[in-house]
Amino acid sequence: MSLLTDPAAIAGLVAREVRTGSRDGAPTRIAVARRIYGTDQPDLWDALTDGERIPRWFLPISGELRVGGRYQIEGNAGGVVEACEEPSRFAVTWEMGPQISWLTVTLTPVGDGTQLELVHEAFVDPELWTQFGPGAVGVGWDLALMGLGLHLSSGEPVDPAAGLAFPTTPEGVAFVRAASSGWAEAAVADGDDPETAHAAAARTVSFYTTVPEDDQQS
Q1: Tell me, which fold does domain 10-209 have in CATH?
Q2: Which of 1, 127, 173, 202 is at a distance of 20 to 30 A from 26, taking alpha carbons?
Q3: Which superkingdom is the protein from (predicted)?
C-alpha cells in the first residue's frame, strides 16, 4: 500500500536551500529544509522531542533528551543535545562514527500552522559532494519530514516496514526524484555547476531507490 497519492506534490511542500559556511576555519555546506505543518507549535514540538512519540514517525531513540545529554537513534546517528528552547528551537550534534555535523531545528507559528526549519551543517568531502551533492543528506531528511507529516495528519504511527520500503516503490521513486531535483536546484543557487549538480542528483536517486541485491534474492 502506498504512503502517498501525489508524491511529487508532497516533496514540493519542502522549501530547500543550500548555503556555504565555515567552522573552525574549515569550509562547510549547509542544507536547509522548511515545511509548514497544519498543527500548533506545542504539538509539533512534542512530536519532535518526546522520546515516546519520535518512533511513531522516525526511529526509536534512547538517552537523555536534555541539554548536555547524549542521545542515540537506533541504527542511525547519536550525539549531544546542545540547546533546547521549548517550544521553539533545539540544536544537537549529529554523529555517525567519526563524522560529526550539526543540526538545528526551529519552529515558528505561521497562520493556522507551524513552520519547521531544519538546518544541517557538515564538513563535506569535495569528491563526495561532487558525487551526490546535498541530496545525500537532504533526501533523508525529506523522507523523515514526510513521515512526520503523515503522523501529524492521522495521529497514528507510521508503519516502519512501509516507511523502509517506500523509496523503492513507484511512488517512492517519484518522491525521491522530485526531492533530489529540488536539492540540485538549491545547490545551483548556491553556486554549484548545474550539470554537475543534476548529475549528482541522479546518483542520489539511484542510491535511495535501488533495492539491495540481498533483498532482491530473498
Answers
A1: Alpha-D-Glucose-1,6-Bisphosphate; Chain A, domain 4 (3.30.530)
A2: 202
A3: Bacteria
